[in-house]
Amino acid sequence: MEPAGIRCAVIGLFFALAVRPAPAAPISVLHLGNSSYVSVVDVAERLGLRMSWVASGGAGGKPGLVLFDAAHRAVLIGESRETRLDGLRVFLGEPVLVRGGRFYISLLDYGKRLTPLIRPELCGAPPPRPRVVAIDPGHGGSDNGMENHRLGLREKVFTLEVALELKPLLEAAGYRVVLTRTADTRVELPARAEIANTQGADLFVSIHFNASAPGDARSHGTEVFTFTLPSQRTDQGWSTRENDREAAPSPVNRFDAWSQVLAQCVHRQVLDALRTDDRGQKTMHLGALRGLGCPAILVESAFLSNDAEGSRVATPAFRRQLAEALLAGIRAYSAELDRLQPAPPPPFRPAPGAPNQPPPTPTSHPTRP
Questions:
Q1: Which CATH number fits domain 7-122: 3.40.1280.10, 3.40.720.10, 3.40.50.740, 3.30.457.10?
Q2: pTM of the full predicted structure?
Q3: Between 265 and which of 59, 115, 196, 332 could a Cys-Cys bridge form, CB atoms 3.0 to 4.6 Å apart?
Q4: Collapsed DSSP state (helix, strand, coil) of residue 172
Q5: Three-state SS across 210-253?
Q6: How many CB atoms are closer than 10 A to CB 11?
């Protein structure tokens, strides 16, 4: 029997998540505080995954559960938001809970994080292959972004240089490219989304470099951000214990599932190319992403506040590597969308001996009085 305070309701989960219906029975949803949770056993069944238990899934000896099949492996850690999905760190919006020896994951994390990354075909019709790519060089003008005064580095300089390096690579691959700035000018955050929307962008990648808290010059690695799901805290909110949940969705939240797919594709390519430490996929209420009408991510590839990483960023070779990795991630995302597109109808083939013409299109005729 579940502990007091947990009440169980049965709803049609796929209706709630706006994903393609499945013939499986409705799934049980537990309401814990302000969040809704589902059993990981049910999740595994609906995603076609097997399960295995591990005595210690993470730091502090916390219990873990592995969901897997031939192509995917997800490690869930009890009482933690951190997961490992196909080898990459992904931070959920709510911690995985353990109640009575059973694991539970939030309904939103199941529908908008695990499902897109493991079974994206359950997320409804995919967007078409992207043709217009918006690249957003962070900061600019009077906004220097992060500065490493020891090395004389300014974030705004390197974000623009990477964007200008990336643009011809994308164009050579057949994409039309929109830059939110092409010079050292300040562009307000909402205006960046407006530029992308006006130009019909199919995806949006914002380029940044990271900074740690004052006095911390050791933090290092790569982070990829998507916009926070409605009713969930940002990663910063969890760190500061601030309740920064937003109940109402923002325009970019319409593309949460596909932003997650884009994040995973770019995250993997950046880590493989740069060999940086994986700090995970996280979320934030990002002003440049909020008003977008397409899938979007923000990439923090390295810490300028770390002298070792900052020195790498200052080299043209590193910036070229990053540009090539972003291109590879965008191409991987395009290939995933191609894979998910419905198959075209078979061509018309007349029966042997029949006239080599397609059947006539039926027409309606008014009924005579």
A1: 3.30.457.10
A2: 0.87
A3: 332
A4: helix
A5: ECCCCCCCCCCCEEEEEECCCCCCCHHHHHHCCCCCCCCCCHHH
A6: 13
